[in-house]
Specification:
With 167 residues, this protein is an alpha/beta fold. Helix content is 32%, strand content 16%. Strands 1-3-2-4-6-5 form a 6-stranded mixed beta sheet, with helices on both faces.
């Protein structure tokens, strides 16, 4: 049986974060970073009561791949930037985009920290995929680096601090 972890955050996001391995410690690091850049109402507990993500949604790539496909199909028209966490998040993102008809170049570029790929869906606005290391390992990605990466994604997506939303 596959594990399904539903997405959380704004239902009309400009910034989408694809986390292939959600765990409480990594989610707290992500929440802390999003709070420091002004798009999360609390510094801990991404899915905790009272937490709101402004212009931002986090989705999982755990288990059934069609779950991520459905999530992207629901919110993709608003998304301007996707942050793919680690190589698994990158691959899951490219598969979800392909399922939505947004086909990456062949061969599809592989994951690398700092990777950037901009694709344009038929009749849609461009979406940029940014690859960053997964925050589960603080030795691989320090808090300051995570903040910088997510702030760059926030700026590129056009999400202002506490921009509102229906988190």
């Amino acid at each position: 049986m596959s594990t399904i972890v539903p997405g959380y955050g704004d239902t009309l996001p400009k910034l989408l974060i694809v986390d292939p391995a959600p765990d409480p410690a990594a989610e707290d690091r992500i929440a802390g970073s999003l709070h420091r850049i002004g798009v999360a109402s609390r510094p801990t507990g991404l899915r905790a009561p009272g937490q709101h993500l402004f212009g931002t949604r986090i989705v999982s790539a755990v288990g059934d791949a069609s779950w991520l496909d459905r999530e992207y199909a629901e919110v993709g028209r608003w998304v301007r930037v996707i942050v793919a966490l680690g190589p698994t998040g990158w691959d899951a993102t490219l598969r979800a985009l392909a399922a939505a008809g947004v086909v990456p170049p062949e061969p599809a570029p592989g994951f690398a920290p700092g990777a950037r790929l901009t694709l344009t869906p038929a009749g849609g606005r461009p979406v940029t995929v940014l690859g960053i290391d997964h925050p589960a390992d603080p030795d691989l990605l320090a808090d300051a680096a995570l903040d910088a990466e997510l702030a760059a994604a926030q700026t590129l997506a056009g999400v202002s601090a506490a921009c509102g939303g229906r988190g």
